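Hi W., the zinc ion complex you wanted:
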Amino acid sequence: GVTPKIAPSMLSSDFSNLASEAKRMLDFGADWLHMDIMDGHFVPNLTIGAPVIESLRKHTKAYLDCHLMVTNPVDYVEPMGKAGASGFTFHVEVSKDNWQELIGRIKSKGMRPGVALKPGTPIEEVYPLIDSENPVEMVLVMTVEPGFGGQKFMPEMMDKVRALRKKYPSLDIEVDGGLGPSTIDMAASAGANCIVAGSSVFGAPEPAAVISLMRKSVSE
Ligand code: DX5
Ligand code: ZN
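Structure:
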């Protein structure tokens, strides 16, 4: 079976206090820390890269679930591996020709490979990467357009999650964008088990309550 993983998105944290923000989320019961890497090209926003992952790694042993919203993910594999990233999730839209090589490199650097898809990308596009001899170990279904936190959850993306879960009963399926107490049940019942949540967790008066509510919904 699949285990619930609740992954606060550090994009909504105070980046000037990243280590203490990370510790706070882990104390609140987070399983993973979701790290949004953006290059200002694949998405119209710029965030953090390997140097920040390396700095954070010195303060925590937590699983760093890195989501690479970048045009050239292959260039990031070695630096991210050295920095101490745990998961390396690239976008299918930019790896149409080289995903086999990319997955191999990610694994050789000791990271867990995942593939993400934007709302406009059909789910069928990730199937070859899961059915491959050297497969991705997680699929991230974007439930907003990538680039920014605080956007509205797109419920129509649950068709993709349902199709994936039917075909792959034990795959890690992550949802990212607009998740929180009002949308978690849709994601959980569709079959998602890894839940990214930024603004709903960081903006809550009691983040621990939001984290445990989401875990409970996924576990039921
Ligand atoms: C958006 C990022 C998300 C974002 C989610 O491009 O991939 O991880 O931080 O933030 P919320 O939960 O606020 O939608
Ligand atoms: Zn993300």
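The pocket of zinc ion (ligand 2) is lined by residues 9, 34, 36, 67, 176, 196 (CB under 6 Å).

W.
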